[in-house]
Design brief:
alpha/beta; 4-stranded antiparallel β-sheet; 43% helix; elongated
């Protein structure tokens, strides 16, 4: 699972963040000060950083600047955590390369959702091929094959399969799928999704059974 670094000097907030992330299955390391965080970066690079703006030894905005200046840490997603009184610092953080922010107090569900979204985006940028046993999705060729045989999919079927596969094991809500594949402004019936799932299952043969319907929620590929 992904490795996430938390830099937060407030013990109670840090414990909440750490517990929530570990409970979701992530590996987590926490730091109260920027110094210890930068020391750890010398040995291990995280997949994502959760960064408080106000720290005792360094401002979070300056930390973001340092991360973005280095080619080694430039691409690591950074989610800034801020109190409502730190609006100006928040804007500075985003301008200097932070990827997202969340305000205190925050919902744990929202926090985890933001983390998952950024990790998923990072994974999608890096992945050239996805494999599910003998099913292979070649992102560069926009091509799907099973045991070497090309499966002819429509553009939407391909996008749907790719989205489910990169989130393998995670139940994706219908609304999320509709927004991702058909766009936030799509005004058609959600029945469109069901029909695409049906034809995708048929074309994938025995692999089609791995696309499971989660009643009243959405779909998951296993």
């Amino acid at each position: 699972m992904a490795l996430i670094y938390i830099i937060e000097d407030d013990n109670s907030i840090r414990e909440i963040e750490e517990y929530a992330l570990k409970n979701t299955g992530y590996n987590v390391k926490s730091f109260e000060k920027a110094g210890a965080f930068f020391d750890e970066l010398e040995d291990n690079l995280p997949d994502l950083i959760v960064l408080d703006i106000m720290l005792p030894d360094e401002n979070g905005v300056e930390i973001v600047k340092q991360l973005r200046r280095s080619p080694v840490t430039r691409a690591i997603p950074v989610i800034m955590v801020t109190a409502k009184t730190s609006e100006l610092d928040l804007v500075k953080g985003l301008e200097n390369g932070a990827d997202d922010y969340i305000k205190k107090p925050f919902s744990v569900m929202e926090f985890i959702s933001r983390v998952k979204a950024h990790l998923r985006r990072t994974l999608e940028d890096d992945v050239k091929c996805l494999e599910l046993d003998k099913l292979v999705i070649n992102k560069e060729r926009h091509e799907v094959s099973i045991d070497g045989t090309i499966i002819n999919l429509t553009f939407k079927e391909y996008e749907l399969l790719y989205y489910l596969t990169i989130n393998k094991g995670i139940v994706i809500r219908r609304e999320q799928i509709m927004e991702r594949i058909w766009g936030i402004d799509y005004e058609g019936e959600s029945r469109t999704l069901d029909m695409h799932i049906k034809t995708l299952r048929q074309k994938l043969g025995e692999y089609g059974a791995r696309i499971r319907t989660v009643r009243n929620v959405g779909y998951v590929i296993e």
